[in-house]
Amino acid sequence: MSKLSRRRFLAGSLAGCAAVMAAPAKNALASGNLAGFPDGMGVLVDLTRCVGCRSCEAACNKEQQLPAPDQPFDDYSVFDQTFHHGTQKRRPTEKAYTVVNRYESKLSDKPIYRKIQCNHCNEPACLTSCFVGAYTKTKEGAVIYNSKVCVGCRNCMIACPFHVPAYSYSSATDPVVKKCIFCYDTRVKHGKPPACVEICPSQALVFGKRAELLKIARERIERHPGKYQDEIYGEKEVGGTSWLYLSGVPFEDVGFDTSLQKEPIINNVKDFLATVPMVLAIWPALFTGFHLLSTKGKKHGEEDQHAEKHEGGEQ
Amino acid sequence: MKYLEQEGIRPLNAAVKKNGKQWNLMEKLFLGLTLEQYVSQFIRNKFNWLLGIIFAIGIPLIIYRFIFGLGAVTHGSYDYPWGLFLGFGLFCMVPLSASGFMLGTTVELFGRHDFEPIERLALLNGLLGYLFAVVYLLVDLGQPWRLGYPMFYSFGPAAVLFLVGWHVATYLSVQVAEVSTSFFEWIGWPRAKQFVRKGAIGLTVSGIILSTLHQGALGALFVYAPGKIHPLWYSAPFQWLHFFVSSIPGGLCMVIVVSTVVIKTMSWRCDERFKDNLDKLTLGLAKGASMGLITYLVIKFIAVAHENEWVYLTTGWGAWWLLEIFLGVLVPLFLFAYGIHNKQVGLVRVAAFFTVAGIVLNRLNTALITFNWKLYQEVPHVFEVIISITIFAIYIATYRFILNRLPILYAWKAQPVEVTVTETVDEKTPIEADQELVGA
Fold first, then answer.
1. Chain A residues touching B158 at Cβ < 8 A
2. Which residues of A touch B116 (CB under 8 A)?
């Protein structure tokens, strides 16, 4: 609740600034609502159960009608792929909204698999950084994207702490952001689980209300204290995400960024945003005052050059 | 121009010819030269040949980019969404164009009319810098034809970029109005000029407001990326102040650099008022710039102390940060101090060059070099570099085209002034005269 009103306040004050410039305020207010919804859905990913079959990748490809992959989905040699001199594993791209990577950990004798996709943040940085409001956090929890208004500034890609959005750079006429949309249009909107969850053969993915998934995750940790890390990744990270992860090994061993802040990213920008209406309100009087103070009763400049200004400027 | 001066031809600087007739528009465009004279001096100028070569390579590449997409000319990376077009074009051009509002404030607001000879150059520098930042942006945007969307169609008012977009657009129109007075003099519409001049204070104050906010907002844009930018270049509470404060010496020093280039390469276009005052004004600008720089230095270290990031200074990135501060802030500060004290204008100009380079390095560090410091380093595509250089060359050509014509470096006169030609030509050494090239 407090988040909601804070966000509304923020949007409202900025809309106020916009109104000062050209008054598009009515529309501006509508795009400000993006707090986490109490009944939002989510997915719990249990890395201890994932077997790395890649069937979620295949299901996603089919559901989202993505182009055929470079290597078939039953080719497990993709787990050996690395990029940029071995520093990077596979990541979501414009052709694949989700990828599964394989990791080794000292604490586990077998490899660990991790599915990567958009985590559908409660307060998404992509959404708050977008200057045309192309992103929407739906009440079902999905972060969806409207390619019809996207200008292509790619600020969302700068802002996303998980490096998720991809961009179709190869298109000259209609380049757009490509990312997981939680199968919103075809499934989640109608209460059905996303394609990847439905196909998962090992029940590594559970679809449900985020609040209930957190309970399930805590139960699993309590029931098997030696099996899980005592942490749910996504519960607090950048204000919480709809997708939550359980792991048997430390999260940094399987490629998670554990240094992320707990507050939403928009909080970092609020200090600056708060100064905006103040500058707009205070500067005019302040600097006009400076002008009057510093030029009162003085004659400056060449008469022929600026005679007309003294009439106009100092009345 | 040297050859033309010897023939007794002076550049056009007044509304009417010696015989009392009005110059027409074509004659004004050709600087009062005949077509033949104009073309021959244009070809004589070797800088035009360099520009020609850059355009011959770069403009086809820009067309290529719009046919085949960004992926064809940039590395089109998901991890590095912004490259040189924004890293240099937007984030460097905008602070270096803060000159417009700085000098506008000095002259119009604080009534320091002694800075008037250089005010118009500073205003033009601001206008063109912003204009070409937008050109870079248009090349970089995926769908540039939708640039107006955040203005009129679809709003994201909680985004910092929304503010940047609105303010840059509004400020561009303010700057067009500010520079338009020179244009109205040149084209001969005194009424329009008077109308704009009446709003001078209003325009200047809007300029300050908009500049404070969008210079800061460019910094605040990076606050969206905690953890991606190296902590030494990232400061959630102070980033916008760092960008705003550094834009002040950036803009002032850019005027010093541009005026240096102008006085060395096109002094024929500068009138006596500009030439006589330039040294004094350069020192004045340098004083302002050094106050900005020392403030910037202090708040940079305050940010390090605030987040307790001292330990990073011992790493490789820390050494790079210290080098940036040393070359871009400390060296110019010492040179300014010595140069201003001893009235050595040459030294001050070198310091200004260091400052400009320091600002560019800082913005590139923030946007590209330390961005994704935990990941791999991205090197820009060679086409991206060429296109960036080409747009900068178009910027220089436009800059020179306007300086050659509008009364920026000289005062517009209603009547032509009789000049004794031989005197001025004889005074010049061949080298000086050689450098005097009209160009466009």
1. 7, 10-11, 14, 31-32, 128, 266, 273
2. 301-302, 305-306
Q: Is residue A205 part of a domain?
A: yes
| Residue A14 included in any domain | yes
HEC profile of B159-173: CHHHHHHHHHHHHHH
CATH number at residue A38: 3.30.70.20
* Domain count of the fold of chain B: 1
Is there a domain that residue B6 lies in? no
CA distance A113 to chain B (A): 21
Please give the residue range of the domain that contains residue B100: 26-412+419-435
Query: In terms of Cα–Cα distance, which of A175, A166, A143, A158 is closest to A92?
Result: A166
Residues in B 116-175 with any Cβ partner in A closer than 8 A: 116, 141-144, 146-147, 149-166, 170
Residues of chain A neighbouring B152 (CB-CB closer than 8 A):
24
- Cβ(A11)–Cβ(A32) below 8 Å: yes
pLDDT at B183: 87
Q: Do A291 and B201 touch (CB under 8 A)?
A: yes
- Rounded CA-CA distance A187/A138 in Å is 13
Subunit contact B111:A308, Cβ cutoff 8 A: no
Contact call for B82 and A149, based on CB within 8 A? no
pLDDT digits (tens, 9 = 90+) for B352-406: 999 999 999 999 999 999 998 888 888 888 999 999 999 999 999 999 999 888 8
Q: B198–A128: do the CB atoms touch at under 8 Å? A: no
- pLDDT at position B432, please? 41
Query: Per the structure, how many domains does chain A have?
Result: 1
Residues in chain A: 315
Sequence-distant (≥ 6) Cβ neighbours of residue B338 within 8 angstroms: B344, B347
CA angle at B236 for the pair B234 and B240, rounded to the nearest 5°: 85
Determine the pLDDT at residue B6: 60
- Residue B145 has what pLDDT? 86
Looking at residue B10, what is its pLDDT? 64
Q: What is the CATH number of the domain that holds B67?
A: 1.20.1630.10
pLDDT digits (tens, 9 = 90+) for B278-306: 999 999 999 999 999 999 999 999 999 99
State which residues form the domain around A134: 9-267
Query: Which among A130, A283, A312 has the least Cβ separation from residue B209?
Result: A283
Residue A122 Cα, gap to closest chain B Cα (Å) = 16
Query: Which residues in chain B come in under a pLDDT of 50?
Result: 418-440
Domain membership flag for residue A20: yes
Judging contacts by C-beta atoms under 8 Å, the chain B residues touching residue A131 are 150, 156, 159, 161-162, 164-165
Q: How many CB atoms lie within 10 A of CB B2?
A: 18
Q: What is the pLDDT of residue A302?
A: 41
Say whether A131 and B156 touch across the interface (CB within 8 A).
yes
Residues of chain A scoring pLDDT < 70:
1-36, 297-315
Could you tell me if residue B86 is inside a domain?
Answer: yes
Query: Considering the domain boundaries, does residue A313 fall inside one?
Result: no
Q: Which of A177, A184, A151 is nearest to A163 (CA)?
A: A177
Contact flag B376-A85 (C-beta cutoff 8 Å): yes
Q: What is the pLDDT of residue B123?
A: 92
Give the Å distances, CA to CA, from A38 to A35, A267, B204, B313. Answer: 9, 20, 49, 44
